[in-house]
Amino acid sequence: MILPILHYPDVRLRTVAKPVETVDDTIKTLVKDMFETMYQAPGIGLAATQIDHHQRIIVIDISDEKNQPLCLINPEIIEKDGEIDWEEGCLSVPDYYQCVKRANHIKVRALNQQGKTFEIEADELLGVCIQHEIDHLDGILFIDHLSKLKQKRLLEKTKKVIKY
Ligand code: NI
């Protein structure tokens, strides 16, 4: 099922998501719907927050063929080092791209969609994408990392488009 994606400046994007306690059938169905929604958008990552569901779940697929689905439940960054500038976009902030500074290399611990703990090391696009999606679970958008001036311009542009 394709789920509607919240758009900035919707305040629900600011919700801090709660950990998943049990990876049960409800969660598995949600993960399936999140992948479907992400692929259809199309996007390379989606956090549950973006579909107004406030549990710590993210789905990612950075492959060109869209055949490498990665699901992280309750993800935790356990190591990070280096620094990288990467141009980011977001399904919740359509048609807007800016460079953001992130850790270049991260190690993440999470549960997979079967509820099993695993660890993954990531850098460049995948590392950036995981950091971007974990931010969503904490109510943070990539634009929060930009200068106040850029944020103000974006908000003005957005208000014009949706005509408050
Ligand atoms: Ni995003």
What topology does this entry show?
Blueprint: H1 25-40, E1 45-47, E2 57-60, E3 70-81, E4 84-90, E5 93-102, E6 105-111, E7 117-123, H2 124-137, H3 148-162
Antiparallel strand pairs: 1-2, 2-3, 3-6, 4-5, 6-7
Bound molecules: nickel (II) ion.
Put the structure in a nutshell.
This protein is α+β, with helices and mostly antiparallel strands and 164 residues long. It contains 3 helices and 7 strands, in the order H-E-E-E-E-E-E-E-H-H.
Q: Would you kindly provide a written description of the structure presented here, covering whatever features stand out?
A:
This protein has 164 residues and is of the alpha+beta class. It has one domain (11-155): Peptide deformylase (Peptide Deformylase, Alpha-Beta Complex), CATH 3.90.45.10. The protein is 27% helix and 30% strand. The protein has 3 helices and 7 strands. It has helices spanning 25-40, 124-137, 148-162, and strands at 45-47, 57-60, 70-81, 84-90, 93-102, 105-111, 117-123. It has a 5-stranded antiparallel beta sheet with strand order 1-2-3-6-7. Strands 4-5 form a two-stranded antiparallel ribbon. The protein is globular and about 45 Å long. The chain starts with 24 loop residues before the first helix and ends with a helix. The mean pLDDT is 96. The structure holds nickel (II) ion (NI). Nickel (II) ion binds next to helix 2.
